[in-house]
Design brief:
The chain is of the alpha+beta class and 334 residues long. It has three helices and 15 strands. It has three domains: 106 residues, Efflux pump adaptor protein, beta barrel domain (Elongation Factor Tu (Ef-tu), domain 3, Beta Barrel); 64 residues, Beta Barrel (OB fold (Dihydrolipoamide Acetyltransferase, E2P)), CATH 2.40.50; 117 residues. It is rod-shaped and about 135 Å long.
Length: 334
């Protein structure tokens, strides 16, 4: 009698254990991922370091204070012009030199043409005189005189041909050199215009109203500040408004595989943690970047867009916290 009871007890215990395992295997489990980021304007004005003549990098001389509100036309960035001002002075000197050289060359050509015309007139006059002498009948003058007149006529014709050729060459030389001088002058003027445009690009004005937010150095993750030097293409700052807010986060490389496009992220600003907004992931970077002020690990960027109305306390540049509930279901359950 005791053995059947033991067998029944064992069977019940196994059933309970199996039921418990089934319950555990079919339970949804969730992992919470915390990410940090900041609020940004999707249509913000971005100021990048321009490519200017001379050195590859330029120094930021002045930037509008971060967090300051600006209006269209306000100065927001001023770069150190470096040697651009001296380049402009040299360009102006080159233009004056080209003008002087062109005028001197033109005057020389005109003098050569004048001399050629004078010789042509003289040759034509000589030809007329010698032609009259050569027209004297042979039987009315000594034979020697007649031969000398014929030789003088031949020489006068030859001199006229040379005079005509010299005048043609003088005109051709002037017409050949004039476009070259004009081209050299145009090149010098274009160089001056290029330097002037470069100087204009050392000052940046706000194109829209908004708040100044300093950009980050993508190599270090640190904020960019006046006095530092950067290469062309580096974003220096943005002018952001609340017109088209979105949220940019930095995700540790260990967590990026747990996040997908379309995942829901609950956003709350550090300054007002109770003002939460539901958002979804719309973009993820393909490559990690270092942030030396955080850790030696790599961090990926993701962008989320709001699904709910954004409270007024949300301001571009504000630090935020994102919460992602990463849920999975065991494949042991049908």
């Amino acid at each position: 009698m005791l053995k059947p009871l033991k067998r029944l007890y064992s069977a019940c215990l196994c059933s309970l254990v199996a039921l418990g395992l089934l319950t555990v295997s079919s339970t949804l489990w969730a992992e919470t991922i915390l990410i940090t980021g900041e609020i940004e304007d999707g249509n913000a004005q971005s100021v990048e370091m321009p490519r200017l003549p001379g050195s590859y990098s330029r120094t930021i001389e002045w930037m509008a204070p971060e967090g300051e509100e600006v209006q269209p036309g306000d100065e927001i960035v001023r770069l150190d012009p470096g040697d651009l001002e001296s380049q402009l002075e040299q360009a102006e000197v080159n233009i004056e030199s080209q003008i002087t050289a062109a005028e001197s060359q033109e005057a020389a050509h005109e003098l050569t043409i004048f001399d050629a015309i004078t010789r042509l007139i003289s040759s034509e006059s000589s030809l007329e005189n010698t032609r009259l002498d050569a027209m004297v009948p042979e039987d009315t003058v000594p034979e020697l005189t007649h031969d000398r007149n014929r030789l003088a006529l031949a020489n006068a014709i030859h001199d006229l041909e040379i005079a005509i050729r010299n005048l043609e060459e003088a005109y051709a030389a002037r017409d050949r050199d004039r476009p070259m001088a004009e081209r050299d002058l145009l090149n010098a003027q274009n160089e001056k215009t290029r330097i002037e445009n470069a100087l204009k690009h050392t000052n940046f004005l706000a194109e829209q109203s908004g708040i100044i937010i300093y950009a980050e150095n993508r190599l270090t993750g640190l904020k960019i500040f006046p006095g530092e030097s950067y290469g062309s293409g580096t974003t220096l700052l943005i002018v952001a408004s609340r017109e088209d807010l979105q949220f940019r986060f930095w995700v540790h490389e260990a967590d990026i595989r747990k996040i997908s496009i379309g995942d829901e992220v609950i956003v709350s600003p550090d300054a007002a943690g109770d003002a939460k907004v539901k958002t979804k992931v719309t973009w993820m970077s393909n490559q990690a970047a270092s942030r030396s002020d955080w850790s030696s690990a790599g961090y990926y960027e993701i962008v989320t867009e709001p699904l709910d109305p954004i409270p007024e306390v949300y301001i571009p540049g504000m630090s935020i916290l994102g919460v992602i509930k990463n849920e999975e279901v065991s494949n042991q359950v049908d």
